[in-house]
Specification:
This protein has 102 residues and is mostly helical. The protein has five helices and no strands.
Length: 102
């Protein structure tokens, strides 16, 4: 799943650089992977890159929603509900009354 998130990210960032819609002013050094993808996709032309950008943005949304579904139906759900579970716990009456009688 993490690989799909990264692939779709670079899949739309590369065409954004090629078409000039990349959200950052300069193509700075830390976007080296996106710049590499842009160089590979540049020969396809402007229209093909617009289509690829749209496709990979929709794919990114689908991957993230799929990841959310996976988390809801997997053992990782406890990470999100643990604070709620701990804050709403109940003490057994025997333990609570023993503490109060001291």
């Amino acid at each position: 799943m993490i690989s799909l998130v990264a692939i779709t990210l670079f899949g739309y960032r590369g065409p954004q650089i090629t078409t000039g819609t990349f959200p950052y002013q300069d193509h700075v050094w830390w976007t080296f992977t996106s710049n590499l993808v842009a160089k590979v996709l540049d020969p396809l032309g402007h229209n093909a890159n617009v289509v690829l950008e749209t496709f990979f943005i929709l794919a990114q949304i689908a991957v993230i929603f799929g990841f959310l579904i996976l988390v809801l139906y997997s053992k990782h759900m406890h990470i999100f509900v643990a604070p709620l579970n701990v804050s709403t716990k109940r003490n057994p009456e025997g333990v609570a009354s023993a503490r109060c009688s001291r």
